[in-house]
Automatic annotation (TrEMBL):
This is DUF1109 domain-containing protein. The chain crosses the membrane at residues 22-45, 57-76, 88-110, 130-150, 157-176, 188-209. InterPro entries: NrsF. Keywords: Membrane, Transmembrane, Transmembrane helix. It comes from Pseudoduganella albidiflava.
Amino acid sequence: MQTDDLIAMLAKDGAVHRRPSLLTWTPVAMAAVLSAVLMAATLGVRPHLEQWAGAPLFWLKCAFVAALATAGLRAVSIAAIPGARFGGLPWLLAAPLVVMAIAAAATLLVADTGTRAQQFWGSTWRSCPFLIALLALPIFAAMLNVMRGLAPTRLRLAGAIAGFAAGATAALLYCLHCPELAPSFVAFWYLLGILIPTAVGALIGRAVLAW
């Protein structure tokens, strides 16, 4: 059966409009818990984390990554359904990127010339993206496995979306360890860490998600 025929059949039966149940995504939730445990055991939670609660930039970082994770997970649930439309989801994804870009530009503009480079590079730029990508692996694997059991039709896109959602979720966990708060650092290096599994997902999506 051709893909177009299958989509037409599902649309006729009304199956396109059914969303996977929360139980379907239980393996992804369990993988996220595993990533959190691995982060705590190998990297450790930042000492005196409670003191950061008073730092607006800490909450800005967390809100930025949480917004990306929310958009990514929403996109995954849509991409797993044949014929489903993303609607206004691209705007939901773009909004936190724009806000963080504005915050990064604003903080760099008011910073002393000598501190601008430090704000961008921080002290962990060499490891940050790769640690995020590594923490994303269990979530990424679980997400691909769940999606394969559903019916994605745009396989490369679905793989990329799964990688993005896994990377953003891992980045949110990484916030509990990372000492960096500068918006310019978060906007670039965190996003780079998220885009690594996104690129991998696009590369392997067709092979892994074929059904």
